[in-house]
Structures are given as structure tokens and as C-alpha cells.
Design brief:
The structure holds two protein chains of two kinds. Chain A has strands spanning 4-6, 9-13, 18-24, 31-37, 43-50, 55-58, 61-66, 71-76, 85-92, 101-102, 106-111. Chain A is mainly beta. In chain A, the strands form two sheets. In chain A, strands 2, 4, 5, 9, 10 and 11 form a six-stranded mixed sheet that branches. In chain A, strands 1-3-8-7-6 form a five-stranded antiparallel sheet, with no helix packed on it. Chain B has no helices and eleven strands. Chain B has strands spanning 5-7, 10-13, 19-24, 31-37, 43-50, 53-56, 65-68, 75-79, 88-95, 104-105, 109-113. In chain B, the strands form two sheets. In chain B, strands 2, 4, 5, 6, 9, 10 and 11 form a seven-stranded mixed sheet that branches. A four-stranded antiparallel sheet of chain B has the order 1-3-8-7, with no helix packed on it. By secondary structure, chain B is mostly beta strands. The chains are: A mainly beta, B mainly beta. Chain A binds chain B through residues 4, 8, 31, 33, 35, 37, 40-45, 48, 88, 90, 92, 94-105, and chain B through 3-4, 6, 31, 33, 35, 37, 40-45, 47-48, 55-56, 58-59, 91, 93, 95, 98-101, 103-108.
């Protein structure tokens, strides 16, 4: 079956870069997503990447995809305390929401 | 434009009671998804609804769980005769289309079954 794995915790110092990693098992995954969940709030779509891309950059966010290894990463440059949240990786064979498979989430703590 | 609203935010029920979770989608959104997150696990899809129709309920347990999205009013996820294993966070997402990149999530309802 499909499975998405992430490490559960990550701590970084303010100003450093954060790299959150995700691995998935479904080779038919076409869309890969990163969501952010702040305390008490819903999930917010940060970015997504098509499987025919290797990299996508959006301001401080860089997504890298290694399709051969089924490995996805999210790099946050110049991490700020406001970036403290839980980050969820999700994959889908198509762009229909009911086919998402989410990882367990990585809790990012940014230390001053 | 208010975001997706869910209520209650926290719900405590005793075993055997019923739980009703409400989701008000964003204005203009006619597609609603429900997900469940068990402790230390990722979100799992439960059901996808459009106004007055269940489109895909492949992720919903066959018994005790039901969902609706009436023409007027919020979407309701109903769990009858709750058991301890139903304790989880239940998230609703709404979308103006059926496409995943346009989903907006609510804050979730945390259900605790005593």
C-alpha cells in the first residue's frame, strides 16, 4: 500500500536553514505537496511539485524531488520563529484531493 | 472571506454516545473533504462530498460513520456509538473545485472518547 514517512521532530536555530525530509512508496505519485499547520489552525498548502520536476523554488522555500529514491525535501532558508509548525508531506497519483496520502508530520521548532 | 470553520473544536464523548462534527466551507466552495488523524499518524482521507451528494466514501468505516453536505448549512460528519478508537482529530477541507491543490483546511475537531 501507499506510505509516506517523515521524521517527527526537527530543531534549528533562528537564521539557519531547515531541511524537512519525506519518503514515499507509491511510484505512480504524480503530485507531491507540502502543508504547514500552525498551532490551533488548519493545514495550509505551502507548495506542490509535479513528479516531472526536480526542483521548485518559491521565495524562502525550495522543494527537491529525487524520483528515483522517492525522496522529497523542503528547505526553508533563514528560518524564523514564525516558521515553527508541523509540516506535512503528501503524495497523490493525481490532483484529486481524496487520493492524498499524508505523512505523519514533522514538528519544526525554531530556537532563538 | 472567512476560512473553513469547524465546530466544536474539542468534543468529549463517552463510549456509546453520538458525535456530530460540523464543517462550514469557505464561501463559494461546493466541495468538502473529511480527513482523520489518529495520534502520531498522518491524515487519512475519509469522504468527499459535493452539495447533496457523496462522491467518494472509500475511506470511511462502513459502520457507525456517516456524512452529509446538505443544500443549505454545514457538512456534518456523524459518528454513532463512539468507541475509544474513534479518538482523533477530524479535519475538514473545502475547495472550489475537485482538485487537490485548491483545498483549504479547517482547524480540526479533536474528539476524545472516554
Amino acid at each position: 500500500g501507499e506510505d509516506v514517512e517523515q521524521s517527527l521532530f526537527l530543531s534549528v536555530r533562528e537564521g539557519d536553514s531547515s531541511v524537512i525530509n519525506c519518503t514515499y512508496t507509491d511510484s505512480s505519485s504524480t503530485y507531491l505537496y507540502w502543508y504547514k499547520q500552525e498551532p490551533g489552525a488548519g493545514l495550509q498548502l505551502l507548495t506542490y511539485i509535479f513528479s516531472n520536476m526536480d526542483m521548485k523554488q518559491d521565495q524562502r522555500l525550495t522543494v527537491l524531488l529525487n524520483k528515483k529514491d522517492k525522496h522529497l525535501s523542503l528547505r526553508i532558508a533563514d528560518t524564523q520563529t514564525g516558521d515553527s509548525a508541523i509540516y506535512f508531506c503528501a503524495e497523490s497519483p493525481d490532483n484529486y484531493g481524496q487520493n492524498f496520502v499524508f505523512g505523519p508530520g514533522t514538528r519544526l521548532s525554531v530556537l532563538p | 472571506n472567512a476560512g473553513v470553520m469547524q465546530n466544536p473544536r474539542h468534543l468529549v464523548r463517552r463510549r456509546g454516545q453520538e458525535a456530530r462534527l460540523r464543517c462550514s466551507p469557505m464561501k463559494g466552495h461546493s466541495h468538502v473533504y473529511w480527513y482523520r488523524q489518529l495520534p502520531e499518524e498522518g491524515l487519512k482521507f475519509m469522504v468527499y462530498l459535493q452539495k447533496e451528494n457523496i462522491i467518494d466514501e472509500s475511506g470511511m468505516p462502513k459502520e457507525r460513520f456517516s456524512a452529509e453536505f446538505p443544500k443549505e448549512g454545514p457538512s456534518i460528519l456523524r459518528i454513532q456509538q463512539v468507541v475509544r478508537g474513534d479518538s482523533a482529530a477530524y479535519f475538514c477541507a473545502s475547495s472550489p473545485t475537485q482538485y487537490g491543490d485548491t483545498q483549504y483546511f479547517g482547524p480540526g475537531t479533536r474528539l476524545t472518547v472516554l
